[in-house]
């Protein structure tokens, strides 16, 4: 078996890894559920490479991500559910169907109208799926929030839920009002703590604050997930500086004390501002 730029070689390798007689023991032990998290993690690795603008890594990570649908399709084929050809046909058919302004005679003057067309077609498809099941949309309970996947990371899902609600006018009018809501939620956390309302109430108030901050980011055209990733990266970098300072001063970090650690922290903060 040799590497190739032909994607069919990837199918062959995956089939070989899953061969009951000569395959890999680890690959043979996997199922849809066990590789689900791998699929999610590989997508995040791609996002990380893009944010770092490391295109050598991006090539590698895209390969890792590409393997995931091949793996899932192989599992499905073994169970006579579908194969990779069905997956490819499904997405190509969907892309053609949802882009009549490219592959048909419709027109879309800008990205906003193209997105509106996509959403309209998507709603028609949903009704058609229900019809195939013998259901009518007016006979079932449906929410515009149903389209937001539950497995999304909580911060991303909060952003998408708020955006969906905003499409029907359920939204704060501007960032100033949203900022006031954040302040209100922050004060409610303080009240819950001081009034001794317990962990459950405090947890609920903290959740409300996080949701409000997510809305503030949306009103300011900031992607909250990306903003938090940047904050995580900044914290990691600054903490590494603190660790290096402790090592240079021959002090065990756990014995340095908060005052000294805070001095190191303020040093890197000051350097960041220069």
Q: What is the strand content?
A: under 5%
- Binned, the helix content reads over 70%
Order of helices and strands: HHHHHHHHHHHH
Mean pLDDT: 92
Strand pairing plus helix content: what structural class?
A: mainly alpha
CATH architecture of the largest domain: Orthogonal Bundle
- What about the largest sheet? none
Summed up, the domain count is 4
The general outline is extended
Q: Which fold name corresponds to the CATH topology of the largest domain?
A: Helix Hairpins
Q: Please, how many helices?
A: 12
Cα-to-Cα separation, first versus last residue: 54 Å
CATH class of the largest domain: Mainly Alpha
Q: Radius of gyration, Cα only, in angstroms?
A: 25 Å
Q: Total number of β-strand segments?
A: 0
Low-confidence stretches: none
* Name given to the CATH homologous superfamily of the largest domain: MazG-like
Question: How is this structure best described in words?
Answer:
By secondary structure, the chain is mainly alpha-helical. It folds into four domains: 7-97, MazG-like (Helix Hairpins), CATH 1.10.287.1080; 109-140; 154-222, MazG-like (Helix Hairpins), CATH 1.10.287; 226-273. Helix content is 71%, strand content 0%. α3 runs antiparallel to α4. The longest helix is centred in the C-terminal third of the chain and has 25 residues, at 224-248.
């Amino acid at each position: 078996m040799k590497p190739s730029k032909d994607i069919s070689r990837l199918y062959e390798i995956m089939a070989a890894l899953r061969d009951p007689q000569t395959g890999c023991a680890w690959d043979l032990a996997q199922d849809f559920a066990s590789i689900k998290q791998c699929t999610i993690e590989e997508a995040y690795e791609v996002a990380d490479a893009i944010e770092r603008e490391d295109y050598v890594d991006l090539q590698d990570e895209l390969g890792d991500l590409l393997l995931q649908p091949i793996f899932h399709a192989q599992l499905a084929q073994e169970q006579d559910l579908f194969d990779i050809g069905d997956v490819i046909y499904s997405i190509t058919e969907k892309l053609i169907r949802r882009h009549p302004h490219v592959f048909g005679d419709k027109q879309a003057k800008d990205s906003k109208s193209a997105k509106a067309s996509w959403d309209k077609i998507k709603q028609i498809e949903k009704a058609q799926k229900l019809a195939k099941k013998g259901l009518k949309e007016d006979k079932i309970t449906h929410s515009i929030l149903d389209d937001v996947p539950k497995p999304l990371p909580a911060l991303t899902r909060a952003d998408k839920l708020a955006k969906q609600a905003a499409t029907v006018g359920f939204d704060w009018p501007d960032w100033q009002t949203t900022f006031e809501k954040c302040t209100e939620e922050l004060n409610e956390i303080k009240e819950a703590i001081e009034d001794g309302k317990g962990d459950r109430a405090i947890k609920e108030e903290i959740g409300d604050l996080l949701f409000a901050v997510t809305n503030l980011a949306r009103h300011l055209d900031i992607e909250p997930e990306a903003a938090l990733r940047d904050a995580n990266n900044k914290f990691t970098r600054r903490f590494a500086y603190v660790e290096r300072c402790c090592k240079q001063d021959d002090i065990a970090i756990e014995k340095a004390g908060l005052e000294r650690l805070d001095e190191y922290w303020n040093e890197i903060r000051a350097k960041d501002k220069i």
